[in-house]
Write a structure and sequence with these properties.
Blueprint (H helix, E strand, L loop, with lengths): L1 E6 L1 E3 L6 E3 L2 E3 L5 E3 L1 H17 L5 E7 L5 H10 L3 E5 L9 H15 L4 E5 L10 H9 L3 E11 L2 E8 L2 E8 L2 E5 L11 H9 L4 E2 L36 H14 L4
Parallel strand pairs: 1-6, 1-8, 6-7, 7-13, 8-12, 9-12
Antiparallel strand pairs: 2-5, 3-4, 9-10, 10-11
Helix pairs in contact: 2-5, 3-4
């Protein structure tokens, strides 16, 4: 069974994001694997183990700059068998549909894929629609928000975690899935896994390598501004007794027209 885990490199969750000259900036914050995509790698590895490790494989796939190799190495350290980076100067302003088109082209180039696994969303964009868009382009069924996965007799069944509870759905393979945290806590990279990942050579494919042209963004950012600065002040109300403090507080609230 050949499984693809699609990941993305994003700013660390502690980064302080702001707008500079119409662009998003996160300063010197480190770039890491998208936390939701760690669950995608975990879900893919679970299926590899369930199907028999020798006959199955997990490939981590990412669209991004050269620096995204570090995110792919994290997936390798977790246990992925190999990784591929799609990097091209024409991919700097991708929207979700553009990313889906590039990922679908890479998946078709890899060939023989049975399952593609995504995280539920990315930390930077958060749209959560790239998995469905990729499935649409591939012409494969899409099973989203999977908290449990089971593959049997050429079909995949999942328990979807939705607001109303759980929903059981199934589809024929190949299929695209997105997973949620219920899939299981991502395994911590082992020491041997980290050593293996550090020595790994990750192939870099351009758009021409995957037979795709530069996708034109359908959704474009026209303006980006920082939220307006808020002025705050603190006033300490004192008094000889709690009753006096309460009276002063009531007068202050009424004067400020809070009530």
């Amino acid at each position: 069974m050949k499984i693809i885990a699609c990941i993305k490199q994003v700013p660390d969750s502690e980064a302080k994001v702001k707008a500079e000259a119409g662009n998003v900036s996160w300063g010197d914050a480190p770039l890491v694997i998208n936390p939701f995509d760690e669950y995608a790698v975990e879900g893919a590895l679970q299926q590899k183990e369930a199907q028999g490790g020798a006959s199955s494989s997990v490939t981590a796939l990412c669209v991004g700059p050269e620096s995204a190799k570090e995110a792919l190495k994290h997936a390798l350290a977790m246990g992925a068998d190999d990784a591929v980076l799609i990097s091209d100067t024409a991919l700097e302003n991708l929207d979700t549909l553009g990313a889906a088109r590039v990922l679908a082209a890479a998946i078709q180039k890899i060939g023989g894929v049975d399952m593609v696994v995504f995280g539920r969303q990315t930390l930077d964009n958060g749209a959560g629609i790239t998995p469905a868009q990729t499935a649409r382009i591939l012409g494969w069924p899409m099973l989203g928000l999977a908290g449990q996965i089971k593959v049997q007799d050429g079909s995949v069944s999942v328990d979807r975690v939705i607001e109303e509870g759980r929903q059981a759905v199934s589809a024929k393979l190949p299929a695209v899935l997105s997973v949620v945290q219920s899939i299981g806590e991502p395994r911590y990279p082992s020491f041997m896994g980290i050593r293996k990942a550090s020595k790994a050579t990750i192939p870099v494919w351009s758009l021409s390598d995957v037979g795709a042209s530069a996708p034109e963004a359908i959704v474009k950012r026209t303006e980006l501004m920082n939220p307006p600065a808020r002025e705050t002040a603190v006033e300490i109300i004192s008094g000889e007794s709690p009753a006096e403090i309460a009276d002063k507080l009531v007068d202050k609230i009424l004067a400020e027209k809070v009530l």
